[in-house]
Amino acid sequence: MSQPQQSASSVPTDPTSDIAARFAPPQARVEAISPGQLPGQTLGQPVWFSVSPVKLLVMCTVTMQLYGVYWLYQQWKLVRDREKSSIMPAPRAFFGVIFFWALCGRVRDSQLAAGFSAKDALNAGGTAAAWIVFSLMWKAPDPFWWVAMIAAVFLMPVQAAMNAVNEAVTPGQPRNDRFTALNWVGIVLGSLFIVMALIGTFMPAEV
Fold first, then answer.
1. What is the pLDDT of residues 184-204, one digit of tens each?
2. I need a surface site. Which of 40, 81, 116, 130 has the fewest CB within 10 A?
3. Global pTM?
4. In Å, how far are 47, 134, 137 from 140, measured between CA atoms?
5. pLDDT band at 172 (very low <50, low <70, confident <90, very high)
6. How far, in Å, CA of 75 to CA of 162, rounded?
7. In the prediction, which pLDDT does 41 show?
8. Is the alpha carbon torsion for 129, 82, 63, 155 positive or negative?
9. What is the number of other CB atoms lying within 10 angstroms of the CB of residue 196?
10. d(CA 86, CA 80)
């Protein structure tokens, strides 16, 4: 005579595993970020506008900081595209002293997101403050307004940090470290203008 089969519901379960399943913490679904991409970044697109720090310094100097406005525009345009925000790059470039602090903060954040340690990341506050102070010196009377030319020096660590992020996230991007023909035109004309301005500032006027 066959024995009655025991139903599946009557099979005893391990009470320990049942309790563990009931009281286990919820599992959050975390989406992995591609190692070659920061949040919001288009794959393959550089995080920051790339240029060598030396070229940046030279071009800002010979153009009396006009290249710096172009540089700020390029950086804010990439920020807008990456963050998919409604910020306007042109006003942020033109009024650079107002928005430069925020830009440096974003540079530091991008370094941390790319895996750099806080110790190696940009000193955003100090660098931004120095650039802003020296940039405002152009309002000083003759000959002290020339001190404003030093502001470009403080863009170099910012650009170095940007280039490091680009290399870490999207390696192989053009380094933009060569002077183009248009750059050389700007260097020649800008240098002549600076020489004339120095003569006008420091040479005594004939009586």
1. 999 999 999 999 988 888 776
2. 40
3. 0.78
4. 36, 10, 5
5. confident
6. 10
7. 66
8. positive
9. 10
10. 7
